[in-house]
Design a protein that fits this description.
about 120 residues, single chain, Helix Hairpins, mainly alpha
Length: about 120
Amino acid sequence: MEWLGLYNYWVFAVLLMTGFCAVITKGNLIKKLLGLSIFQSAVFLLYISMGKVDGGTAPIFVNGASDQIFSNPLPQVLILTAIVVGISTTALGLAIVVRIKETYGSIEEHEIQAKDDQQ
């Protein structure tokens, strides 16, 4: 296989590392949530890329055709479910960040830890 022919896997790796780096290195809680969202999008891309079959068609049987190649629809179905779960998780995370901002007056991780240490 050509290395450039696997561009979707390269995009997956770059998105995955970008999201992971944002989660690990950023102190702002909103930036951490955005990093998690990017990380999650990379996983979606990986699953969809693995489900693609060259020359594959929808899994509908036709009489007399025995040499058909089918694409597996399961990865796409799982990703649709994961998108819904991801959106709801992100919404919950944003709601928690709003409550943290109301309680501590900041969404910076080091400031929140400093206020916790004072108490």
